[in-house]
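Could someone model tryptophan with this protein?
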Amino acid sequence: MTERGSFASKIGIILATAGSAVGLGNIWRFPVETGTNGGAAFIIIYLACVLILGIPMMTAEFIIGRRTHTNIATAYKQLAPGEPWFLTGYAGMLCVTLILSYYSVVAGWTLKYAMSSALTEMSAVSDTAAFFNDFASSTWAPMCYSVVFLVITHLIIERGIERGIESFSKVLMPILLVIMIVLVAGALSMPGAKTGVEFLLKPDFGKITGDVVLSALGQAFFSLSLAIGCLSTYASYFKNDVNLGQTAASVVGLDTSVAILSGFIIFPAVFSVAGASPDAGPGLVFITLPNIFNNVFSGMPALGYVFSLLFYVLLVLAALTSTISMHEEVTAFVHERYQVNRLRAASVMTVISIVLSVLCCLSFGPLKDFTPFFGMGFFDFFNYVTAKFIMPISGIILCLFVGWRLKRQVVVEELTNRGSLHIPAWVCSLFIFFLRWMAPIAIGLIFVNELGIWK
Ligand code: TRP
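Reply:
Sure, complex below.
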C-alpha cells in the first residue's frame, strides 16, 4: 500500500550509509577518546575492533533490512513471526530517538560555532571556555540551534529516499572529504605538527589496559551506527543486487578513514600550542580547538578564519548526514505501520525529537539542577542509557538473531545475492560462527565493563 522508495545507485548507497556512520562520533568523540586513552595504542585496538567486529555486524544488520525491505519492527516480525524478537526493533527506535535528542544538541553547538566563525565572532573570543559555557548554559540560543538542526533534518527526510537522503549524501559527503583533506594539510603545516603525528603513530603498548580495549570497542559501535536498527532501515532501501559484505567493508573503511583523518587535524593542532593537552576531554573541540585557531593563526587571521569556518562546517555536515539516518528509522516505521504519508510520519518524529531535544538543551542551563535520573539530567541520562544499556544489549541480540535464529540458508542467500555472487562456503560459515560466539562475547564484555563491575 505504501510506495517504498529505494536508493538508486550503488555509490549513493555507500555515501548515504557512510553518511550515517560518519558524524560527531568520528570528529568529536573519536579524538576525545584517543586523547584520553593514550593515542596510537588506542587507535590500533580501535582498528582491530572495527575490522574484526564492525564489518560482520554491519553485514548482519544489512541482512535483516535487505531481506525484508521494511522498517525494523516489521522486519523482525516477518523474519520470526509470533516471537518476541520484534521488541528489539522497538528498543532500537526508542534508542535512536533518545540519541537523536541529545545528539541534536551537540549538532546545534556545531551550527553555532560555524555561524560564529563565519561572522568572525569566534576569532575575537579570548576565553574560549567561558564562551562555550555561557552559550551552552543559556536558555534560548542552544535550543534554537538544535531546533533549526532538526528542522533541516526533517526537510531532507520529507523528500524521501532517493531525492532526499541519497541526493543530499551524494553532495555532502564529497564536500566533507574535501574539507577534511584541506584541514589535514593545514594542520600538518602547524608548528607542533610532528609531536601530534607521533602521538597518533607511535604506540606506547604500556598504555593498553582492559579499559582502553573496551573504550575502543564502545567507540567502534557508536561510530559505525551499529546495532539499533539504523543500518537495517537503510539496507531496506538497498536493491537486491547490492553486495552486502562489500558495502559494509566500504562503509567501515570510509568511517575509519574519517576518524583517523580527524585525528590528523586535531592532534597536530593541539600540540602546536603550549599548554594544550590532548586529553582535554569533551571540551576538546569546543574549547581547546577555537583557542588554538586563535593562537596559532594570530599573525594570519585570514587563515585562522578559513580554518575555523571549514572545521565547524565539516562538523555540521557530518552531524547532518547522521541525524538524517536516525530520523529515517522512526519515520519509516510510522509511515509503514500506521499508513500515514511520509510528511506526516516525519512530522511525528520531528515533534518528538524537538521536545526531547529541548529538555536536553535545558539540562545545561535552567534545568541544571534537575537530575532525577540517578543523579543525571536529561542529556547525560539519554547518553548513558543508550550507550551503556540499549546499544550493547541490542547488539548482542542482533548477533544472536542472525547467528542462531535465522536459517543458514537465508543468511547465505543474502550474502551471495541468492547465489549470484561467488562467496566461498567457508566465509559464510566463519561469518555465522562469528555472530554466534565471538561478537556476543566481545559485546558482553563491554557491557559488563561499562556497568563498572570490574573496575
Ligand atoms: N555514527 C554516528 C556518528 O559517528 C552517529 C549515529 C548515527 C548513530 N546513527 C546512529 C549512533 C545509530 C548509534 C546508532 O556520529
